[in-house]
Amino acid sequence: MVAQDFEAVLRAKxxxxxxxxxxxxxxxxxxxxxAGVIYLEGRQTKLQEDNDSPEHFRQRRHFYYMTGxxxxxxxxxxxxxxxxxxxxxxxxxxxxxxxxxxPLSVDEALARYDVDEVKHTTDVGxxxxxxxxxxxxxxxxxxxxxxSDADALSPFGRSDLDALxxxxxxxxxxxxxxxxxxxxxxxxxSALAHEAVLRRAATASNERELDAVFLERCVAHGAxxxxxxxxxAAGKAAATLHYVANxxxxxxxxxxxxxxxxxxxxYASDITRTFPLCGKFSKESRDIYDVVHKMQRDCIELIKxxxxxxxxxxxxxxxxxxxxxxxGVLRGDADEILAARTSAAFFPHGLGHYLGLDTHDVGGNxxxxxxxxxxxxxxxxxTIPAGSVxxxxxxxxxxxxxxxxxxxxxxxAKFIDAAVxxxxxxxxxxRYVCPLRPPSSPAADLDSIEDxxxxxxxxxxNLTTAVKEPAEMEAVASAARSA
Length: 483
Description:
The chain has helices at 6-9, 16-28, 61-67, 94-100, 106-112, 124-133, 163-173, 177-200, 207-220, 283-301, 309-327, 334-340, 400-407, 410-413, 418-421, 470-482, and strands at residues 36-41, 75-79, 84-89, 117-120, 139-141, 158-160, 231-234, 255-259, 263-264, 267-268, 272-276, 307-308, 383-384, 389-392, 395-398, 445-448, 451-455, 460-462. With 483 residues, the protein is α+β, with helices and mostly antiparallel strands. It folds into 2 domains: 12-173, 3-Layer(aba) Sandwich (Creatine Amidinohydrolase, Chain A, domain 1); 177-480, Alpha-Beta Complex (Creatine Amidinohydrolase). The strands form 6 sheets. The chain has a 6-stranded mixed beta sheet, sandwiched between helices. The chain has a 3-stranded antiparallel beta sheet with strand order 7-8-11. The protein has a 3-stranded antiparallel beta sheet with strand order 14-17-18, covered by helices on one side. Strand 9 and strand 10 (267-268) form a beta hairpin. Helix 2 (16-28) crosses helix 3 and helix 11 (309-327) crosses helix 12. Residues 428-445 have low confidence and may be disordered.
């Protein structure tokens, strides 16, 4: 599917029925004589504490995967033997109509969602009792913590509150054409917003202005929800991976890191770019950017079905070591540096993660207790199947808090040239300085690039269209400055 086809794909219904069948197929791997009912509850409306306004609504992702329904206070049942799904929506509350208008009707919901039947939530109990009575061996599969009324499950002879979650999380790893189209759309809108930030950076005075630019472009194109809190970090703030303040002045800062992505109908994008606020990279900034760019480019080229993600992540460290050796920041033998894990001082996090209904999507099997520092923060382990979507987000950091303990450790210090490193604390040295942004005091800085990659049987497809080539970013930024 070429990029421009995603709008045509999205004119169809979300394929909830196909997802239900996929989950059942996975359940059968551990439950051979599978029979019974899948039961799920959507997120409930909840008022804020000491306030009569509702909390911001975010649908349970497992519920959405099985229904395509983004309404609050809904239920869902899928009868495994008959292959029939029922969506339960709230009945009309006459007292609420004056405030919120008429809710979706049963007929409208049936036309909108890929289910066989729509009823009101007042029918949940009788419907489940009827389904349970059709077979004495019926089991109800639900999720622990997601059942508000345990009595609703009592008609069933058995209940299983564990297997369904595992099955849905396994199913969500491989995306179908519709899901990929949703991620394409999220990337398309986010790329427009990223370029708007790049253009506005020439005249902005504070991170919050650029935060507002990103949000405005996304909302204007129909994406009101962000996949995560946008990160607009200038200078040393970029060394905080999940920086959320977005309110610091830009004067004295050379580069801006923007890590931001919109959702499209609950499916996420996750995009990072680093660019010069002055419209032109300094020599040191460009040197580091080129290393990170090569890390990402080389790792993307290794992607195809059934490749071990651990191996690609390890390759990113090899490229980082080679680049930092060439710049003189590191010294010694590349294999010895890798064996000592010294590169973790500059690239301390994982290469990427699964992407889908969540930014850090399910199924990655991370091991935060791994004694190997190179893999401890890797959110994705093992092989990657065709149809999965992964992020590839290498970075090179110059953060005193991270690096100085390595400089004090003789095992690592022998591999780091402190004199050369001094030129990179502020990505400074001989550099291009914007007259409106004089150099700040030495501080941590970061170069990072992140794209969203669809894994195919023979390779990959990059779903991210945001500008990232250095010359192109400089051209856009320079054009904005001269406009």
